[in-house]
Amino acid sequence: MDEWAWDETLFAGSAAHYGVGRMPYPPSVAEAVAEALGGAGTGRLLDVGCGPGSLTIPLAPLFASAVGIDADPDMLAEAGRLADRAGVSNVEWCHLRAEDLPADLGTFRAVSFGQSFHWMDRDLVACRVRGMLSPDGAWIHVGGTTHRGAVDATHSAPPWHRIDELVTRYLGPVRRAGRGTLPDGTRSGEEIVMRRAGFAGPSRIVVTDDRIVERDIDEVVSAVFSLSSSAPHLFADRLGAFELELRHLLTEATATGRFSERLGPIEVVIWRPT
User: Fold this and answer.
1) What is the pLDDT of residues 174-218, one digit of tens each?
2) Sheet hosting strand 199-207, strand order edge to edge
3) With 0-12 CB in 10 A as exposed, 13-18 as middle and 19+ as buried, what is 38?
4) pLDDT tens, 154-163?
5) What are the phi and psi torsion angles at 17 (to 5°)?
6) CA 222 to mean position of chain CA atoms
7) Is the peptide bond before 61 cis (omega within 30 degrees of 0)?
8) Alpha helix locations (H) across 49-107?
9) Cβ contact 227:18 at 8 Å
């Protein structure tokens, strides 16, 4: 098949599920960013590929103002709703692809990517973002698995292997992504891209949080639909049948209707412009 290319259906239908099905970043992520930047309350933040504000909302209070951009208008609407609920009012939400930066947005003290950079034209975006950073600015990449917890035999986690098998039965063995597929997963080699664009580093901070997160069946269903590889639109007219089977599978897996998972590690990677 041809090389995968982004299209606007990548997360179609997932926005409402994202905030429900993804576990939030622990507060220690924002604390680690504040320490790395040497203080809080000044400058501007740009969150690229912000989705429903999962990273923007906890980081925005560290800055005088913030901008979140995303190519999915439904994600931005959800971000605005969640920011209002969290009492975060210093964020401007912009419907914009990362490849269209700088878009007259100005200069920023920090530009963040929360599990989003791999979906972009990385060389182009890295070069354009570098030109938007102040001389003492920082590129912040936050990575981690937030739709499911770390493997922990002492807790009753959702039966993820059976969920994966169910998705495969409906969508096939090759990972779906928008209108295309990713047979080998998303791209690696980020360090090469960053150095080629004129960044130095990186410094890495691994944030661990041993909290046990409890989730009900609705939350696990939303976790599945929050993924690009199992976004609602991919099931087309079989969406109802898939959700019915998924809920039956989850109901059989728990006598209480609830699951518990240990929050996995989150990595904060910081690059500086040379």
Assistant:
1) 999 999 999 988 888 999 999 999 999 999 999 998 888 999 999
2) 91-95, 65-70, 44-48, 108-114, 133-143, 266-273, 199-207
3) exposed
4) 678 899 999 9
5) -90, -25
6) 14
7) no
8) 56-59, 73-86
9) no
Cα distance between residue 118 and residue 69, in whole Å: 16
Task: List, in order, residues 6 or more apart from 5 with CB less than 8 Å away.
Answer: 180
Residues shown for the chain: 274
Asked whether 111 and 251 are in contact (CB, 8 A), the reply is no
pTM over 0.85: yes
| 3-class secondary-structure state, position 149 | coil
d(CA 269, CA 112): 10
- Report all structural domains of the chain as residue ranges with CATH numbers, in order of start: 15-273 (3.40.50.150)
Mean predicted confidence (pLDDT) in 256-263:
91
Block residue for tokens 């976004």: 231
Asked if 99 and 121 count as a contact pair (C-beta separation under 8 A), the reply is: yes
pLDDT at position 1: 39
d(CA 194, CA 211): 33
Q: Tokens at residue 54, please?
A: 């999962």
Instruction: Give CA–CA dist 172/160, Å, rounded.
Output: 17
List the structure tokens of 104: 């007259």
CB 221 within 8 A of CB 21: yes
By the 8 A CB rule, do 122 and 246 touch? no
